[in-house]
Specification:
Blueprint lengths: L3 H27 L9 H12 L1 H11 L7 E2 L2 E2 L4 H30 L8 H27 L5 H34 L10 H27 L8
Length: 229
């Protein structure tokens, strides 16, 4: 069992993150502030699940439709390049995060371990699901921007744009997961049935965001990946 102080902190962090995600969902679907790019309506609340108040602040400051300060003679004001990169990372991170959540619960439910350690299976399943969902997210980002492009080319472009980005995200996350299981909770290993596991995964996903950021700068500047804003 993780220490009680860590469980308490974890529940607070997770509760705040869920509240931030709900606020974003309410603002989009109830208040009617729909995103110009439909896939971002999933990206922003998922981002809030691991960045919490920072994700909510980013949505409110960079993405909320209709803010007067974001308008320039009726048109959206161009965002600075670092903001465009961060939104691109959040787009990739949303697919990785959702894939990691699904894969982790599958590995736990099936009881898959090697020498009592679930980490090897988590790596395989997490990357597989993150890759598939990341490409789906990227596909539905490119498709509205390039409606004239054949579906096969859109898929090829999505693979080219997101493979390096999501791999960089997973490298950061996987490194932190190794620290979680092999250093912080070596015996016994921390399992996803504890809130502490998901609190530490929030940290890991934030690390993944940081490791993916420089890769997205390179991808966008090379024209391999288009900006999401």
């Amino acid at each position: 069992m993780p220490p009680q102080w860590l469980e308490t902190l974890a529940w607070i962090s997770l509760g705040v993150a869920f509240l931030c995600a709900i606020i974003i969902l309410w603002d989009i679907f109830v208040a009617g502030n729909r995103q110009p790019m439909g896939v971002m309506e999933a990206v922003w609340p998922i981002t809030a699940l691991y960045l919490g108040p920072l994700g909510l602040w980013a949505y409110w400051h960079w993405a909320r439709v209709g803010r007067p300060e974001e308008q320039d003679q009726g048109e959206p004001r161009p965002k600075p390049f670092p903001v465009k990169v961060a939104i691109g990372v959040s787009h990739c991170g949303a697919g990785c995060t959702l894939g990691d959540i699904i894969a982790t619960w599958i590995v736990f439910a099936l009881g898959l371990t090697i020498a009592g350690l679930a980490l090897p299976y988590e790596y395989v399943f997490d990357f597989t699901f993150a890759f598939l969902l990341g490409i789906v997210f990227q596909f539905f980002a490119i498709r509205p921007m390039r409606p004239e492009m054949p579906l096969g080319q859109v898929l090829k472009k999505a693979l080219k744009a997101d493979t390096l980005s999501l791999t960089a995200f997973e490298v950061g996350l996987f490194g932190w997961m190794a620290i979680m299981q092999l250093v912080l909770f070596k015996n016994p290993h921390l399992s996803p049935e504890h809130a502490s596991y998901w609190f530490l995964m929030q940290i890991g996903m934030a690390i993944g965001f940081m490791t993916s950021y420089p890769v997205n700068i390179w991808l966008i500047r090379r024209g391999i990946k288009e900006t999401m804003a």
